[in-house]
Amino acid sequence: MLDLSIIIVNYKTPELILNCLASIYTHTKNVEFEVIIVDNQSGDDSQSRIQAHYPMVRWFNMGYNSGFARANNYGIGQAKARNVLLLNSDTLLMDNVLARCVGVLDEQPDVAAVSVLQRGADRQLRPNLYTTFGQMRRAFYILPAGASFQDWLQRLIPDPHFTDPNQVEWLSGAFLMTRLSTIARAGGLDENFFMYGEDVEWGYRLGKQGRLLLLQDASFVHLEYGSSDDNQQHVVTHINRFKPQIQVSQLLWVRKQYGVGAYLVLILHYVFMIPVVFAWKVAVNLRDRRSPWSDLTNQRAFAQQVGIFLRFFWKTLFNQRGFYKV
C-alpha cells in the first residue's frame, strides 16, 4: 500500500501546480506517494499542461466550482494510500518534509493529524498564524486596540495550554496530513463550506481522534496567491479584517461548534458596530475640521460586509445544509 496520497485542488492555477509538483518530486525521498488533482471547472488547459510534464498524476474533474471541502473530499475518496495530505496549489516544499510527517503518523498512533510551519514567498517564517480556536474567535470582535480590552477578551475566550509545544487545536488546510483511518472515524470536510473555515471545523473533529501537531522544526512555503479572483489583494483595516467569504465561513464554524448563542452574540456585535464606526469617524472628521461625511469608505465597506453576513443569517442560525458561497 502507498504511504501517501497528495491531494491538490486546482482552479486555474496550472503554473503554480507545476512548481508545486517540481518541489514535491525533487525533495521527497523514501515515501511511496501518488498525486491526485481535483479540478474545479477551471475551463483552461490546466490538465494538458500538467499531465504533459507529470503523466503519472491522477486527474479528476468536479464539473463545477465545488470549493475546497467538496473537492478535497472527492480526492480523499480516490486515495489509494494509508495517509492523505491536503496541499494547496500555491505551495512549495523545500526539503523532505513529507517523509517527516509520515514518520510522525506511523510512530505516534495518538496523533490524529500533523502539519508544519509556513514560510512566505521570501522564505521567512510567517508569525502569528492562528493555532487555537480562541485566537480565531477573538479576532472576530472589533474592540479598541488597548491592552485592557484585549486582556478582557483573552479572559473571556481563553486558549488551552498543552505540554507539547507542537500541539495545537487546528491545522491549516494548506498542508494537513492525516490517516484515511482517522478520516473514517472523524468524517470528511464539511461540504456546507465553500472556502475557508472548513479546516477549522475539521480540526475540532480530528482533535477528538487524537492530538494535532504543528511541527516547529519543519516548514513549507505558502505563496498565498492561488486562485483568488482578486489575487489576495485585500486591504486589512481594524474594522475590515477579513474578506466576506472568509467571515461568512467562520461564522458558520462558530454556529456549528459553539451553538446559537455564540453566533448571535457575534451577529449582534457587528450590527451594533455599524453606527459606532460611523459615529467615531464623523467625530474624528469634526475634530480635524473636515466635512463630517469625509472619507467614510472603510465604514461603508464594513456596513456592506455586515449586509452580506445577514444574507446568510437564517440559514446559519438554523444550521441548514447548503452551499455557503458568497
Write up what this structure looks like.
α1 runs parallel beside α2 (46-53) and α9 packs antiparallel against α10 (297-311). The radius of gyration is 21 Å and the shape is globular. The protein has helices at residues 14-27, 46-53, 67-78, 97-107, 133-139, 147-156, 180-186, 198-207, 244-287, 297-311, 313-317; strands at 2-10, 33-39, 58-61, 81-87, 91-92, 111-119, 167-168, 175-179, 211-222. It starts with a strand and ends in a 9-residue tail after the last helix. The mean pLDDT is 94. The longest helix has 44 residues, at 244-287. The chain folds into two domains: 2-222, Spore Coat Polysaccharide Biosynthesis Protein SpsA, Chain A (Alpha-Beta Complex), CATH 3.90.550; 244-317. With 326 residues, it is of the alpha/beta class.
Key structural traits:
44% helix, alpha/beta, 11 helices, 2 domains, Spore Coat Polysaccharide Biosynthesis Protein SpsA, Chain A, 326 residues
Q: What is the helical fraction, as a range of percent?
A: 40-55%
**Beta-strand residue percentage:** 15-25%
Regarding CATH, which class of the largest domain? Answer: Alpha Beta
CATH-defined superfamily of the largest domain: Spore Coat Polysaccharide Biosynthesis Protein SpsA, Chain A
CATH topology of the largest domain: Spore Coat Polysaccharide Biosynthesis Protein SpsA, Chain A
**Count of the domains:** 2
Biggest beta-sheet profile: 9 strands, mixed
Q: Supply the number of helical segments.
A: 11
Give the N-to-C terminal Cα separation: 40 Å
- Alpha-beta content class: alpha/beta
Radius of gyration from CA coordinates: 21 Å
Overall geometry: globular
What is the succession of H and E elements? EHEHEHEEHEHHEEHHEHHH
The quaternary state of the protein chains shown equals single chain
Low-confidence stretches: none
CATH architecture of the largest domain: Alpha-Beta Complex
pLDDT averaged over residues = 94
Number of strand segments: 9
InterPro entries: Glyco_trans_2-like, Nucleotide-diphossugar_trans
Organism: Spirosoma liriopis
Transmembrane segments: 260-280
Keywords: Membrane, Transmembrane, Transmembrane helix
